[in-house]
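Methods — Computational structure assignment.
A single polypeptide chain was analysed. Its primary sequence is given first, followed by the predicted tertiary structure written as structure tokens.
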Amino acid sequence: MSHPHRLRLPSPAGPPLSGHLPFADAPGVSDPIAVTSRWLTRGGRPWFPVSGEFHYSRCPAGEWEEELLKMKAGGVTAVASYLIWIHHEEIEGRVRFDGDRDLRRFAELCARHGLDFIPRIGPWSHAEVRNGGLPDWVVARDCVPRTDDPVYLDAVRPWFAAIARQLDGLDRAHGGPVVAIQIENELYDQPGHLLTLKRMAQEAGLSAPLWTSTAWGGVQLPPDELLPLYGGYTEAFWTEADGGWPDTCRKHFFFTHQRDDEGIGSDLRPVRVRGSEPDAFADRFPWATCELGGGMAVSYHRRPYVDPGDIGALGLTKIGCGSVWQGYYMFHGGTNPAGELSTLQESHATGYPNDLPVLTYDFQAPLGEYGQYRRTYHELRLQHLLLADFGHLIAPMRSTLPDRLPDGQFDRDTLRWAVRGDGTSGFLFVNNHQPHERLPEHPETSFTVEFPSGGGELTLPGTPVTVPSGAYFCWPLRLDVAGLRLEWATAQPVCTVDVDGRTVLVLAATDGVAPELALDAATVAAVHTPSGAVTPVGDRLLVTGLRPGTEALVEVDTAEGGRVGLLVLDAATARTVYRGEAWGAERLVLSGDGVVFDRDEVRLHGSGTATSFAVLPAPERAAVVDGVRAEAVTDGVFTRYAVPAARAVEASAPRVTLVRAAGPAPESVTGVLGRASVPADKYFDTVAAEYHVEVPEGLPPGTLLRLRWSGDVGRAYVADTLVADQFCAGRVWDIGLDRLPADALRAEGLRLRVLPLHAEAPVHLPERARDARETAAVTQAEWIPRHTWSVRAS
């Protein structure tokens, strides 16, 4: 039985409002940034930024540059970072911008590598930091923080001045990277104070074309002064332990035009459920985001596990909903610095509703606490490549929903889809994935999209298909590719690359759906396909039977005399695609490991399991890997090069010795809002199981110790210094050895202490960690070597 789905695109809307907001770029810049009521522009062209949060003060400064390059290779175009006040001025009057706090150097590194920078200047940040980032000495003053209390403002003013000195000359007027500045965070009911802070920041000398504010929770903003930014998370650590999957997270897996998420930050303010009520700023501002969840933190009482597919589905769905700015929190995890006066994490001890780990702020992010590549990174990179080439088309396109919509947030049977279109072309979005609850497959599915003003309609694909359970994808509709009109493809556009003077569009096949390309016959002179068939159907040529992969290049001579390639990769290979400037040209690199592009060098990051990488177009000169000329072989249209084997880790497995078995789990204690609190420090000395890990000489730089364990809280020490920690949530526990004091580590090894979790503790655990209660054990340990290969053209 066929299941057709129909949608009619509305007539094109009139031009958006422009010039109605008091935002202005620096005079004379070559690519001025502006805001219309529906999208952003840069250099007069629609602009679709991708921002990723990376807290420099939570990462060693020596690692910043490579981690920024990883973010750029992942498709991030702007780096956002909280400037966490307590990290810089824990002691009043001693403002530190040295070492890992060197804000200016971080911003300069962004500029060096073509990344925009978005400082989120606070003064209150949240960020799961002590006092939300306010230093203790500010909290101790006789004032009301986060208001226009003069005593509070007197404390803030020098902090803003210090930031301005650090960023002096890095604004747009001087060719700098600062494109936006966020004021405060999650302040929903103080519009006057937000305006005061903006004026104070400007008076201090800060400037940017965009001034922003978080806008969730029914926020009140000073009219037209701050660009509202939204968010959405797949899970939440801040809700109750027994609350199940929050409805405010569930809704993000549906196509909707509601921007607000009343659930974010709801532990610190009243929840005002807005349902389908229109968002207050939708008529004057575009739908921009700064906190799409790139992962999720783990609190003591609630420990979510985030699957990479959850993040991928969230991101793609938001594009289909109408987002014109994909902003992720976090994109790179981190580690809290050691405080001089106290620990610096959010905790019950400071009156906050959630106890967080002392050190780790990994956030299950696409790039982990130690720069680990996660599958989420590859899921999102695929989408960011799409936006890099086609974001200027997508941004002005309105999102349209079908007439048949899901019947509420618990409808798992109605197919979720939407189209962004401009009246003549568009992109079709489908999401058949959500966390926790498997969505059914949809057999015999087809889509009919009716274009307005005599534009006719498209019905695709030629033969109905099954939309697999767990699938999420974007298919093009009437996409122009260098003079070829691609009427549709049942494959997702990835990016384009120039190969021998022709444009090659790379597409990613959808797992479980046979790729089909429909070409407008009027734009085609000839078609050559390596497999399958080309069949005339009306005024179209239908290409079917392709076997996706590196050989699946459909070559088209256009009616205008041009040449176009359509390369359809299988889904797994598509997730290994990187694009960047290398050896004098823009190239694609296929690698199962990480790839960064750094001027005339490409670096591969991996554990030594990958044995090769592939390039398109191949460099004219031979590829040299770590100084050795690499053997080259043909892999479809790519050229594949061998990678030398990484040096093996000398110790085959870590020596982990049980020193003391765990005692009885401590009774659970509750704190703020009646939520479970982290057990007192004394229990780590008396009740925790203790292990000793011998760390041998000769481990390669970058080696991680990876632990599989069960229990409640794990802490790692070198001598008596806490160096790593984690709450058990069914995830591996990685510890980066390079960040530990080397001499003491070699002399004394690493001590692990693992507390058991009481059977009755009011703690939410994901399904994969349900057996952790009343156990405290390290069950497996391994060294994870990390190697970097340098690739140059000789």
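Note: The chain has a mean pLDDT of 95.
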